[in-house]
Every structure is written in structure tokens, then in C-alpha cells.
Write a structure and sequence with these properties.
The complex is a heterohexamer, with 3 copies of chain A (486 residues) and 3 copies of chain B (113 residues). Chain A is mainly α. Chain A contains 16 helices and 2 strands. Chain A has one domain: Ammonium transporter fold (Orthogonal Bundle). Classes of the chains: A mainly alpha (486), B alpha+beta (113). Chains in contact: A-B, A-C, A-D, A-E, B-C, B-E, B-F, C-D, C-F, D-E, D-F, E-F. Bound molecules: adenosine-5'-diphosphate (3 copies).
């Protein structure tokens, strides 16, 4: 196991060291505000940014930092470019902070004896993911194929070599990490740590960037007019479907499905151990989502950002409200953890359509998401008997798909690509299905290989005692008396 | 000497303590426990899955007393803990052969109180 | 109980669905940066924004997104408008994050057996609040009465119908939520969940918007020259006075006031269960407060924002420092939870005057707030015998009033409305008193009706066992051994 | 003890009250955007900001808020000034939020019985620090000596008296607080609270500002061309070396080093009590670090901010990755708390060079930091036998030094001060050594005096029972059953 | 009457409970404990420092029964807890002199069940 | 056979364990408890309200031994726990009728050690 990890680190490192690390050879982005640097590369935009004043400013005579006269046009460009940089750095940081949210939600909704393990997974998927996304992922997603964007994959700009688009890279790497981290929740409390590291390397380096390229990198879906503003499909569904495959291939946690005396299988609730942490996680995620959705304007001058904030807020609120109502009706009590899932479901669902639907439509999208997540959790857990401890599949995959479809149903066609409503719905559905197929197939292969080569699941004994001792040799809540038999 | 073990409802700890103090019994040890008894428990739901909870939270009190104090102690506990509802709890009385106070190494009756 | 909730959801939903949810019918804000959209509506400003360059830029010939020549004036306007949008979205997100802070503080300062309940309240008051504020609250607060701002209430722009001021709405909705959430702390550990939902609907939809209209919506107090920069009165006192009424009408928690043998009533401390959570909450609140106060410039070009950051920092620090000193002197130990309250008291107090007082005055305002909160908690708890578990009344109501008064005492008159000092103090006092009267009366009526119709308080048994099991059917810290008898 | 505290408060307060608190006498920064106010004072810049368009805009004819014609030049200046204000306020707020991160990390990595104490320290070092930094610290750090920057100390602008640079002050005060708060972790679980307050007053008011003046205030090191972009040395090493001195002078916690039967000294692990809190703290710190490093451009128009975000991300990731690998190899399990330290080590190391090294160099810097922190912890704990509960010395001092040196090794010389590589390395080393000497000597004197006058360490009994009861009279986790014997 | 104290592996609580229910023993009290026995414990590492953990998590069950139930109870516990591995646990049987049900103040055998 | 129950100060657990190991007593069970005894407790303040805490944290050790080991065990505990201060704790010795090792189903003396 050590060996696997060691070679993994070595691999990453040597790849990195392969190119010179000295600054002289690899020139750093110029630190002066010139229009050329600041113009956000449209190719990297989730959606082609609307024509704004900014893009008329690209013609510049001189760089201006050598004291020559700087024209007003150039200054305008510098202002809007700087504003965009400030905007993307801050919203990108908010998206980074969502890692903390995921970590807290997943830790809170699982058991104390596995807390260390899930924290490590959430930390390491970002660390492994950001390095591999730097090395190859970004190149696959936003690179060119020859002179133009490839239909299925990009292939240039590895290690930010030819371009120096550090601003876009930073904003995109935090999205890639979000996608990867979704899976850890569904696979919680029974997955081998080293296997998880391998998985995260592949999803961040290959699976996510390729489907991402189709939609945001100029690939075939984007060419068809598929619209996914901030990533209901690109980010959330990708993570969600991989989570589904992972949860299926792992099997349920011991004690989740038990036979009673009559041989009937009963579903048992395995309660999370720390609801305040889970709630904090949801607040952090919601907070970060303003970065996720609003920042996806990719342009500090694009005022649709304020509209996005409104639709995001309303959908999330309705998601929580309706999920609470649904669980209240089903189990006679308003369940905390399902309500938290409801807020997240609303957020996932509004992620694709946030810029192209009205606030009233956002209410409806969120409301449906709230009901959907409750029904989906019931279905996945009780009918399909797939054990997804935190509801990742229902929140991210199902509502990711719902949100993507909602673009077609509620979206302002004028802002989309001049298709009729039914046609647009069709395109959205096509995108949902192709990403589903891509992720399910590739992640099945991935998990299958991992299962055969390293093994996917810890031993029964380790699972019963907790992965914290088994995988990490120490406990999360030292000194606390905890009934670990549950 | 006897060891009196009492299981009571958590919310009754304060009133039991007060009754014991009134009866001039000042020494005791308390732990918390989960109890399963006539009280059927309740159902918890989590993510719409129903779980029967039949291990209920209880407080366990241990009091060592010399024989002459047993009655007084039992009465005080009952007075503090009784609400005439299922789940009020039980008292067990066990024989104790020896008691030692660590600080003074005193033995027997003198060490109990 | 289910019925109440169900109809509540239905009510919100049908109200929403009453208007068409399809984007074609309800046109979305234009996503292009034009000066008309970006100019922040002065009517919605907490204080009339100082004349900045921005407002001279309103005259524009064309929208410019159709390729016509765009004049430099228009571009200037686009820059400042975009900067304001970026500024308000980010500071607004910080204010949203304060919800997490409130949730953590209130959870940490109450008992483990009620943690789920208080988390749900903090989440749902935002969700219910944002929806009702969208439907009616915003219209009452910032709407017009005919052609101009009404003296007592606004009445237009429901559901953002006529205006499309999504930027201002987003910034304002997070303020409304702050006001509502203050109350949950004072009413913690004994309030029926469904009653809390009803309360929050009314405060966010009616009580808060109306007094808010008087001060920030162009109503009678603002016309008189009453100054409350970021909401010591508008937000904090409103929440605080409602908290006071709620705590009185509920009565104290079981075990808070006990008779000893001689029949004398003794006050007992009911300790919070998780100080790290409470401290985290205070750090989050403080962090969010930079959004709350600085963002209240409502204008990204208004450089007073940096001054506000300084006064805010100093007042909060002095608040914590003096509260710690006061409790050290009173009880011989520096109490953690009172010190946390002290920081919040300093923040509440500086909220109104932050833009118009010097840093040195901020030190004084914070210092007084720190002492005041300690004395006020003593008074409320030991003399008035009102049980306010987290000190919400002392922090928000008392210090909200103090901060509002401090505007008159320390404020730079040149920045206020040309009144003499005594006159200004008088106006500030008038504002404090009228808002007090408005909130106390309306929230008394509200709680009285709730008490009669649904009941305000859970049963004794439920309270003893904890609201988590009683109201939500599950526990917050599953597996942990907790002495729940306390 | 009360007396000490009381006089401390009084001292701070009277100092503050010594100047008039009324706004008329102490005029507040003008709230209108004029170029003079907005131009960031170059003297306060961590590094002299690169020449940007902004600085060519200083010539203005009129202030423009009285309705006179405002020239375009002036407007440009207003835009860039406002953008810088927005940028610094938001990044400064992020840096403030790092206080929460430190509080959570330090609390999580120590024992439950000392949680209240460590929370109070983390809160109060900011509160005391910000007030003293306002009163004198800022003046020592960024003040002038006569007409120009002194070589060794500044001496003007106390209480922001002559300048009104509120924007820079806010950004700088949060840095000062970071430096102070590092020490609390190394001195955790055994330090007298009142002694800690005195220490924090001196480091924030004197020790930090003076060495800070040398590097960022225009002093002798900055004049030599020493480069520390965001404070590996200025902030982290200063805190780290003080932490080292403090930990040595306190001695180890009871039970850390025990003699076994054969008289051999064995090192025992004293486990932290709450890993989810510690992990949350690291995520918060990492999040805040984007403010720390990117904001250190000190200029909203300086696009190197995006480059900084990339190098920061990669170094942190590699730090965590390599620290995990190292502990995996050493102890056969990937240790959670060391991995968390690894991420922080990467962040500390990239803080100085983040703007002048390539992304690939950032990978290397982070990787080395990750290994270094693990080896350093081993060395400090097992060889030097210094008890540093959270690894503050290894994270902040050792990696602060490493990062500062890395500027010389990997930095783009063109962006530095025209020295040759070896010369630059030499200058960096000189800076490291002089700051080490300054901090070690002054903090030794400080702790020595405190030890003699008030005492540095709590009694053995108090330490065993926990500082929460001893120093603050209450527990952090009321109701939880905790084995406090450990 | 006897008091049966059993220390078992935490993960066996559910199966022990089920066996007891099958044997129609419905009353018990449960606490968690740390145990030190033949099972050597395991090593934890924290920040690369190795600590021997020889206090392992155990579940402690207390059941008061009338004499005739002792055998049945012991068998049920063994059936539920036995895995033939070191650490399976121990059962201790102590004499009980009196049992009182707090609710009804009943004494003796009638109060046990 | 006897069951030795000892209440000690939490911070003494390590030294008691060491003394027991020296006396070659390796088996024991530990729980934590709150104790009320001669030690008066201390006052906590929370938000400037004073609360008397008279339930102090204690460690409860349970050791079953054969009769011949009783003395040795008691001495070891006293050696490890004694500090001559109020609150040092108490030892109770109760008769045990039977001990069963779950793994092997051995009974009696052989199962104790
Ligand atoms: N036979 C027993 N052995 C061990 N504990 C018991 C026994 N009977 C009762 N208890 C404890 O006493 C508690 C209260 O008992 P229960 O039967 O619910 O109430 P009641 O005394 O009203 O019949 C139980 O939860 C359990 O902890
Ligand atoms: N003599 C004893 N006194 C008290 N507790 C004991 C004694 N012997 C065993 N135990 C408890 O039983 C648990 C299991 O015992 P152990 O010796 O590890 O297993 P086994 O029964 O397989 O020999 C121990 O962890 C301890 O809690
Ligand atoms: N009679 C008793 N019954 C039960 N527990 C007791 C009794 N006497 C003492 N204890 C336990 O022993 C602990 C120490 O007793 P205490 O009287 O404080 O010390 P000392 O042994 O110095 O008199 C108490 O906190 C309590 O847990």
C-alpha cells in the first residue's frame, strides 16, 4: 500500500520536475496590468460570455509599463480585466472553501469512528486533484487540438505551458475538485484509502476534464448549443454518477440492510454523528455556491451576476423548504439531515439554469429539487438498496440532471442558442445522457480495475472497528466516550 | 455493608440528590447508562428510515452504605425518583465485604461514610 | 402540525406560481453592463450614498450591446456599476455566511439535546424569510406608494415585478434574514418548531420591512435625518426586541430559576454544550460583519468602506476586551461565553455609527458596549428573570440602541443631516423608541396569536428529554455519551 | 491577576481616550472617491508595488464632489483606487478569518479540557493586538523617522493620526494578528492566561512591527533588496521563533516525556481531541491564505494576483501530499494531523516567493515543505525534546525560513532587485538570520520577565485538571463524557 | 437473585441483545467501558509517535435475574458474543440481596423481571 | 472470587495501571463516573452565574480476582492512587459467585485471570 502511494507521489513529482523548476526558463506571467493578459480567454468560459464592452477593447498599441503614453482604450481594458481578475479570484476562493463544506457535511453525516478517514479523503482529493489538473487535466479540458478546440478532447497547454492563463486555471481547478469530492460521501465508511487516492487521480485528470471539454472546452455539446451555466452536469452530475457506480461496486455498509427473523430485508438507519458539523457544512457550501454560480459569469463586467445571486438564493431556500415538508409528511417529523440535503439539491438544480431563468422559475426549480431529493433518497436506499450514506447520488446526480433539463424547460430562449423550446430540451437531455454514459462506463472500468488490483473495500473487522484506527491509526475524538457499536 | 445500585430517569438526578442530601447521605457515584426495560422505548427517524430505540438513557447511581443506612437510602431514592410512570427505574442491593478509603487506608464501616 | 406546515409551503408556492414561471413572460434582467441597470437605486440605500462620480454618469445614449459606438461616459458608468455589483455580491455573500455564525453560536451556547432543533431554526428562518421577502417583504420595504416613497410603508415591486433590482435585493435579503435569526437564540430550547416557522414568516414579511421602510426605504425617520448606517436599529434592535418579547412570553427553561429550601429563587447556569462551536460562530459573524458594515456603502466607489473596516475592527476588539475584564472582575474568572458576547456587542454597537465616527470614538463605543452587554445580561437574567439562553437581547437590542444613540453622540455632524448635536441625539432617540414600540407591540400580538392558536412551547416532558427527539425524531450527536440530565 | 488585567484594559483605554474621541476634532477620512485618498501609499507595501497605470494618475485638479468637471484622468484613478479598496477589504477580511482557522486547528489538536482556554487566547490575541497595533504598532512599522523611513524603526502616525490610511491599516492589522496567534499553539495547555495577554501585547505592539519595518516599512532589509512578498519571514517566522522560545521556556506538558522502568525517556503522543475541528481549521486557513498571498499585491490592478493564486494552490497541495507520504513511510499509516500540518507548511513556504516563482517551482517548494515539516516535527519533538503541541515551530518558523530562502533559489531575478542569484540567496539568508536573532532575543527577554513577575505556567494541579476549569471556571463540552485522565 | 455483569466486544451488542430477547430476557442496562485483558491491544500512531493502546473499547451489560434465569441468561450472552477470538469477554455473577421497582415499590423476585 | 471496585482520581489512572502491572494484575475494566464524596467540589461560573459542582470526575476500575489476589490488588491500587488528599477515592470489595470466559466457556478461578 505504501508502495502505491509512494510511486503515486513520485509520479506526480517527477512529472512536475520533468520541466525545469527554475523561473528563468519558465517565465512567469507578467505582473503588470496589460490588456492582453487580462482579456479572459473565451474558450475557457463555461458559456460563451455575452458580448460586453470589454471585448471591444482588445486593440492595444503598447503595453504601457515602460512609461509610454497609454491610451484610454487600453486603460478601460485594464480596468475591466483587473475587475475580472479580482472577481474570479474571490469567487474561486469561495469555491475552494466548498471543500470545507463537503468535508463537514460528509463527516457529520457518517459515524465518529470514520471521521478521520473522511476528512483525509476530502483534503487529499483536492491536493491530488489540483496537481493532476495542473499536469494534464486542464490541457485535456481547455487545450486545443491543433489550431482549434477538439470535438472530444483538448490536447495542449499541459502544465500551463503555452498559455499562461493562471486566472482561468485557478477558477477551474476548484470546480474540478468539487466534482471529485462528491464521490467520497457516497463511498464513505468502507472504502480503502489508497484506492480512493487512485480514483481521485483518474477522475480529476481524465474523466472530468473530457466531459468538461465537451461542454465548456468548446467540444461537441457546446457546439450544439447545450447550456450548463455553472455546472449542474459538468461538475455535479459527473461527481454524482461516479458516486453511484462507486457505491454499487462497494456494496452497502455492514448493518445497513439486515434480515429480520422472517428473512425479510429491513433497511436500518445508520445515523450521522455530528449534525452541527453537517449543518455548518451546508452553510459553507451555500456560501461558496455564490462563488460557484455568480463567478461563472467569468467576467467582472457581466451584470448577470446579480441575477444569478437571486435565483441561487431562491432555489436553495425552496429546496430546503420543500424537502423539509416532504420528510415531515413521510415520517411525521421534519428531518434535519434531509432538509440539509434539500438545500443542496436546490443549489445543484439551479446551477445550470441560474443565469437564464426568472426568479419565479427559480422558486419552482428549487421546490421540485427539494421533493425530488427526498423521493430519490427513498428510491435509492429502499428500492435499489444502494447505500449512499450522505445522499450524494440524489443530491448531485439526480438534481444535476434535473437542473440541466430545467434550462430547457424554463430558460429564456433568447439567451440560449436560438433553438425552439422542444429542441433545446432535447439538446439538454442529450447532454445529460451522454455525460451519464461517459461517466458510468469510465468509472465502472476504473473501479473494476482498482477492485481487482488493490481492492476497493476494507476488511469487515476494520469496518466494524472504524476506518480511523484501521487506515490512519488514530481516532478523531480522543477522550470522548462514544458508543462505537452502532 | 451494602452496595446500592439504582437506575433512574436522567431528569430525576437532581431531585434524588436532594433527597439523599436531606437524608444525610452525601457520598455516591454516578455514571450514565442505556437501559432496556418495561418502558418500550421510542422510535427515531433519520432520513425517513424508522429505527426502534429500545436502549433508553438512564442514570446509574452507586452508593455504598453500612447496613443501618440501607433503608433510609432506598427511601430517599424512591422519593426523589418516583413519578409513577413506567421507566422510573430499579434499585439493586448487593452485599459488600470490605470498603477501604484510599487516602487513610481505613477499612470497614468507618470508610463507607 | 403537519397541516400548518403543509399549507405554509403551499401558500408560499402558490403565491409564487401565481405569476408565470416561464422566462418568456417574465423577462430576466439584461445581462449586459449598461449604466441604467447598474446605477444603484438611491432609494434602497441605508443612507443616501454620498455624491460620487458615479451618479453624474446616468445620461447614456445607447445600450451598447448592439454594436453601436459606446461613449466613454457610458464606460465609466459600466465600470463603477460593475464594481458595485462585485462589491455587493461579495459583501452580501459574507452577510449570508453570518447565518452559519448565528447557527454555531446559538447551538454552542445551548444544550446538546436541543442542537438539531436550533440548527433547523437557523436554517429555516433564512429559507422561509428569503421566499417571503421576495414575495412581499421587499415591496413593503423598498416599494413606492404611488410615485414616491410612502411615509410608513412601501407598496410596489412585489416579486421584483416592476423593478429588476436584483443586486439590491440580494444584499437586502441577507439583512432581513439576520434580523429574523436573532430571535431563535433567545427562544431556544423550549419553542415549538412550527410556531417558530410562523413567527419567522411574519417578521421577515411584515415587521422588519415596515420599520425598515421608515429608515432605509425613504420613510418618515429617514426624512427626519435619522442615521443608521448598517442597521444597529433596523436589523439588530428589531431582532433583539422581538427576542425579548418572545423570551418573556415563553417563560424560562425548566431548571433556570429554582426555589431553594428557604423558598428563595436561585438563578442557575444552564451551560452551553460546545464552546468551540460558539467561538467559531463568533469568528464567522465577525468575518461576515465586514460584509455587513463595509458593504453598506452600497457603492463600490465609496471609499468610506475602508474607514468602516477600521472602526468595525476596533469596536469589536474593545467590546471583547472590556466584556472579558468586566466578567473577570465580577466572577473572578474571564468567562468565555460572555467574552464572545462582548465581541458581538461591539460589532452591533458600531454598526450604526461605523461610517461617521473616528477610530478613537470606535474604541469608546466598543468599550462601552462590552461593559453594557455584561451588565445587561446580569440585569435581564437576575433582576428581570427573563431567560435568554444566548444573551440575544443584551447583544442585539440593548447594544443596537446604544450604537444608534452613539451616532448622535460621537458622529461627525457634517456627514449627518445638518442638525445640531442635541437635535441629532434627539432624532436618534426618537428612532430607537419608535422602533422599540413598533416591534414590541407587533411581536406581542404575533406571539399572542401563535400561543392561542398553535401554542408556543413544547411539553415539559419534551423539554426535559430534548427537542431533538421530540420535534425532529433524532439526536445531534449520535453515539456520544452525554449526560442529558443537565 | 485581576489587577494586571484591569490595568491592562485601563492602559489601553486611557491611551485611547487621551486623544479626543469626538469626531469634530479628529476628522474622519473623506468618504468620497478622490485620487489622493485612493492611491495606495507605496511605503506600506510589502514589496514596492510594480509600476502600474495607477501611479501615473496622481495629478488631479479638483476633488470633484462639489460638482465641478471631473477629468477622465481623475476618474481612472478613482476606478483603480476603488478597485484596490474593494480588493484589500475583501482579502483583508479573508485574512481576518484565518483567526478562526488558527483557533480551530489549535483547539482540535489539543485536549478537550483546555479547549476554552485556547479559544480565549485566539480571540484575545486579535483583540489586544488590534488595539495596540492601532495605538503604537502601526506607527513603529510604517511610520516615518523625520521625513523618510527609518532604517530600524518608524516613529509617526500613531493612532492613524497624521495619515489616514485606513485601507492599508486594516490589511496590515490582520497580518499582525496572524503573527501573534501562531504562538498560542506552541504554548498550549500549560500557559497562564494573563501571561499570554501580556506577551501578545508586546509582540503585536513592538516585536512584530519593528522587524516588519525592516522588510515592509522601508527599513534596512528592504533597502538591500530582501524579498518577502506576503510574509513567510515577516509574519510566519516571527510567530514561529517566538513560539519556539515560548515552548522552551515553558517546558513540556506533564506526561509528554516519561521515564520508563529503565530510566529511559520515552516520548508519548498526547492526542488532539477533535480532528474535524482541526481539519476545518486548515480549510479555513487555506481559504484565508488566498487573501493573505493574493491580497499582498496591495493593488487591485496588479494582475500578478492570479499567478499568486496558482502557486499558492500548488504548493499547499504538494505540501499535504508529501507530508502524508512521509508519515506513511515513517509510521506505516497516513497520519491526519501531520498531513494537515503539511498543507500549512506548503502555504507558509510559498508565502514569500508566490509572486516570483513559476508554478512548477511552486510544486517543488511545496513538496520540500511537506517533507521538511515532518522531519522538523520529529526533530523538535524527539531530539530537541521541545513540546510543541500543534507543530507551530515546524510549520511557521522552519518553513517560513525555507520559503524565504526559496525566493533566492527559484525566484525570477528580473522581478527581484537586480542581484545575481547567489547574492540574492545571501540577502535572503541574512534576512532570515537577522529576524531570527531579533525575535529570539526579544521574546526571550519578554518571556523571562513575565516568568519572574507573573509566572508563565499554571500549577501542576491545574494543568492536570485542565485549564478550562482553572483559568476560566467552566468546561468546553458540558454534558459530554470525556476521559480527562489522558 | 443474581446480578450478571458481562463485558463484550462493542460490535456484538446487537447480537447479544437479540439472543437475550429470544430467551425472553428483556431487561438490561448497558454502559461502555474500556477493558484490559488477554487481548493485547493495538498501537496507535499520532504525529509519528507510537502509543500502545491497551485499554480497548468494551460494552458492559448488567442484568439482574432471579436465580432460575441465570443459566438461560449466561447461555444467551455466550451465544451472542462468542467468536472464539481473544477479547470475546467475560461474565461475572454476583449475589443480589434485594431488588426494588421504584414505580411500584415492589420488592424481591417480582421486581426483577 | 471477588470483584474489586475502585474510584480514583482521573489523573491517577496511569500510575494505578502501572502498579497493577507490576503486581502482575493485567485484567481490568475502566469506566468514567461522577463522584460525590468528602471532597467538596468546586464552583464553576458560566456567564457570571455561580454553580456548585459537587459531582466530580472520577475513574471507576473493576477488577475480578481470585481470593488470594485481593490483598495484592488493593495494595497496588492504593500505591498508585494515594496522594493523601481528600478525593483520593475508595475501594469496594464484593463477593463474586461465578466467572465465565466467553471465548472458552471456562468457569471459575481459571476464567478470572
Ligand atoms: N433486570 C434488570 N437488570 C438490569 N437493569 C434493569 C433491570 N430491570 C430494569 N433495569 C433498569 O431499570 C430501568 C427502568 O426499568 P423499567 O422496567 O423501564 O421501568 P419500571 O421500573 O417502571 O418497570 C431500565 O431501563 C434498566 O436500565
Ligand atoms: N479479571 C477481570 N476483571 C475485570 N474485567 C475483566 C477481567 N477479565 C476480563 N475483563 C474484561 O473482559 C474483557 C475481555 O477480556 P480478554 O481477556 O481480553 O478476553 P478473553 O475473554 O478472550 O480472554 C477485557 O477487556 C476486560 O474489559
Ligand atoms: N459511599 C460511597 N458510595 C459510592 N461511592 C463513593 C462512596 N464514598 C466515596 N465514593 C466515591 O469515591 C470518591 C472519593 O471519595 P471522597 O470521599 O471524595 O474521598 P476520600 O476517599 O478522600 O474521602 C467519590 O467522589 C465517590 O465517587
Amino acid at each position: 500500500m505504501n508502495k502505491i502511494l509512494f510511486s503515486l507521489s513520485l509520479f506526480l513529482f517527477t512529472l512536475g520536475a520533468g520541466t525545469s523548476v527554475f523561473a528563468e526558463d519558465a517565465p512567469v506571467t507578467s505582473v503588470t496590468a496589460t490588456a492582453e493578459v487580462v482579456a479572459p480567454a473565451p474558450a475557457t468560459a463555461p458559456t460563451p460570455p455575452p458580448e460586453v464592452t470589454l471585448s471591444t477593447d482588445k486593440v492595444i498599441a503598447e503595453t504601457g509599463d515602460d512609461g509610454t503614453v497609454v491610451s484610454q482604450t487600453e486603460k478601460n481594458s485594464a480596468f475591466s480585466g483587473s475587475l475580472t481578475a479580482v472577481w474570479l479570484l474571490i469567487t474561486g476562493s469561495l469555491v475552494f472553501f466548498m471543500q470545507a463544506g463537503f468535508a463537514m457535511v460528509e463527516t457529520g453525516l457518517t459515524r465518529a469512528k470514520n471521521a478521520n478517514n473522511i476528512l483525509m479523503k476530502n483534503l487529499m482529493d483536492f491536493c491530488v486533484g489540483s496537481v493532476i489538473f495542473f499536469l494534464v487535466g486542464w490541457g485535456f479540458m481547455y487545450g486545443k487540438m491543433g489550431l482549434e478546440a477538439g470535438k472530444f478532447i483538448g490536447f495542449s497547454d499541459f502544465m500551463l505551458s503555452s498559455s499562461n492563463d493562471t486566472m482561468s486555471w485557478f477558477f477551474q481547478v476548484v470546480f474540478a475538485a468539487t466534482s471529485a469530492t462528491i464521490v467520497s460521501g457516497a463511498m464513505a465508511e468502507r472504502t480503502k484509502f489508497v484506492s480512493y487516492l487512485v480514483y481521485t487521480l483518474v477522475i480529476s485528470g481524465l474523466i472530468y476534464p473530457i466531459s468538461g471539454h465537451w461542454i465548456w472546452g468548446g467540444g461537441w455539446l457546446s457546439q450544439m448549443g447545450f447550456h450548463d451555466f455553472a455546472g449542474s452536469t459538468v461538475v455535479h452530475s459527473v461527481g454524482g454518477w461516479a458516486a453511484l457506480v462507486g457505491a454499487i461496486m462497494l456494496g452497502p455498509r455492514i448493518g445497513k440492510y439486515v434480515k429480520d427473523e422472517k428473512g425479510k430485508i429491513r433497511v436500518r438507519a445508520i445515523q450521522g454523528h455530528n449534525m452541527p458539523l453537517a449543518a455548518l457544512g451546508v452553510f459553507i457550501l451555500w456560501f461558496g455556491w455564490y462563488g460557484f454560480n455568480c463567478g461563472s459569469t467569468l467576467n467582472g463586467m457581466d451584470l448577470s451576476m446579480t441575477h444569478v445571486a437571486v435565483t441561487t438564493t431562491l432555489a436553495a431556500s425552496m429546496g430546503a423548504l420543500l424537502a423539509m415538508t416532504a420528510t415531515w409528511l413521510i415520517s411525521k417529523k421534519p428531518d434535519v439531515s434531509m432538509t440539509l440535503n434539500g438545500a443542496l439539491a436546490g443549489l445543484v438544480a439551479i446551477t445550470a439554469p441560474c443565469a437564464v431563468v426568472s426568479p419565479t422559475a427559480a422558486l419552482a426549480i428549487g421546490a421540485i429539487a427539494g421533493v425530488l431529493v427526498v423521493l430519490s433518497v427513498e428510491f435509492v436506499e429502499k428500492v435499489l438498496r444502494i447505500d449512499d450514506p450522505v445522499g450524494a447520488v440524489s443530491v448531485h446526480a439526480v438534481n444535476g440532471a434535473w437542473g440541466t433539463l430545467a434550462v430547457g424547460i424554463f430558460g429564456d430562449l433568447a439567451k440560449l442558442s436560438n433553438h425552439g423550446r422542444l429542441e433545446q430540451i432535447g439538446i439538454q437531455a442529450l447532454g445529460i445522457v451522454s455525460v451519464f454514459a461517459w461517466v458510468v462506463i469510465t468509472s465502472f472500468i476504473l473501479f473494476f480495475i482498482i477492485k481487482k488490483v488493490i481492492g476497493l473495500r476494507v476488511t469487515e473487522k476494520e469496518e466494524l472497528r472504524g476506518l480511523d484506527i484501521g487506515e490512519h491509526g488514530s481516532e478523531a475524538y480522543n477522550g470522548f466516550q462514544i458508543f462505537s457499536n452502532m | 455493608m451494602k452496595l446500592i445500585i439504582a437506575y433512574i430517569q436522567p431528569e430525576k438526578l437532581n431531585s434524588v440528590k436532594q433527597e439523599l442530601f436531606k437524608a444525610e447521605i452525601y457520598k455516591m457515584s454516578v455514571t450514565n447508562a442505556l437501559g432496556c426495560g418495561q418502558q418500550k422505548g421510542y422510535t427515531e427517524t433519520y432520513r425517513n428510515v424508522v429505527n426502534e430505540v429500545n436502549l433508553l438513557k438512564k442514570i446509574r447511581i452507586e452508593i455504598a452504605v453500612s447496613d443501618s443506612f440501607v433503608d433510609k437510602t432506598v427511601k430517599a431514592i424512591i422519593k426523589g425518583a418516583k413519578s409513577n410512570q413506567i421507566g422510573d427505574g430499579k434499585i439493586f442491593i448487593l452485599p459488600v465485604e470490605e470498603v477501604i478509603r484510599i487516602r487513610s487506608e481505613e477499612h470497614g464501616e468507618i470508610a463507607v461514610g
